[in-house]
Amino acid sequence: MRRFKAFLKRKNIEFSAKRYGVDALGAMAQGLFCTLLVGTILNTIGTQFHVGFLTASVVTVGETGYTIGGLASAMVGPAMAIAIGYALQAPPLVLFSLAPVGYATNILGGAGGPLAVLVIAIIAAECGKAVSKETKVDILVTPIVTVLVGIGVAYLIAPPIGKAASAVGKLIMWATELQPFFMGILVSVIVGVALTLPISSAAICAALGLTGLAGGAAVAGCCAQMVGFAIMSFRENKWGGLVSQGLGTSMLQMGNIVRNPRIWIPPTVASAITGPIATCIFKMKMNGTPVSSGMGTCGVVGPIGVYTGWVNDVAEGAKAAITGMDWIGLVLICFILPGVLTWLISLPCRKAGWIKEGDLKLED
Length: 364
Fold this sequence. Notes:
Elements: H1 2-10, H2 17-49, H3 52-55, E1 59-61, E2 64-66, H4 68-74, H5 76-87, H6 92-109, H7 113-131, H8 138-178, H9 180-196, H10 201-208, H11 212-232, H12 234-248, H13 254-259, H14 265-281, H15 301-316, H16 324-351
């Protein structure tokens, strides 16, 4: 056992929740963002503003033509797998060999492909790391082992993993349709909290394929955390903090939350309010890419995803038109209510001494 532990240490193979549940999951979300999400945004811009080079097919594979955005979206599997390998500190031959593993796994996983990629890319990367530089023909052995293990395991378990993830996502979406008030609160709070924690809410939403009313509630919760913390901490962090948290991430407050968990109360309560407002009053749905459900106002991706869903629904005939009420709901849920509610809730917390001056100060 001692020799085995020494081998794992030498190979930088660490079985831990942080490495797999935080580092790998967060990296997977970045891979999703740089391909599927960027591709969707580019396609939406091209369609809505009639940008010729964004709507024209640049590559044809078989009988399928791909736009620039389409190509970016098609590479989501390889990007996720490589990003995961990078987070696991895989050597170059392992890292590059994960491209076909991710592509095959994402296809085999279907709607739950992202979760399948997370699991199988970890397995393939760690197996590749185990054999890396152990032979004189490393240039052959390492890629072959990584690809064979990855695609072999994907063939066996990616479909059931994908189906399970999709089933859980559908259950959440069905429950939200059935009980929009209570599920609006639950989804909004949980996904919003996940966004602020050092895990990836975007990857969770993508893995579960969270769209529809549940996706709208997730957007509400994420926006409540980001905009809420940005407004609530304005007196400490000024404009720099407003931008870094409101358009960046509320995760910047994690150090302060560990020191004083009570600072988390205002934005979390705000998310519990905006979630059901989104689901029950404005019927706000995220019918864009599921990853957008967990992005909040980071790069304004959440609101853009909602808008993209409107465009898709109109094009498919599921929605007659984008109405003024839609826009009012989007602005209120994503920007105005999170800031106003969090600020109002923070006032009695400050008065009671639960939140003191400097508790929300970001490190320079």
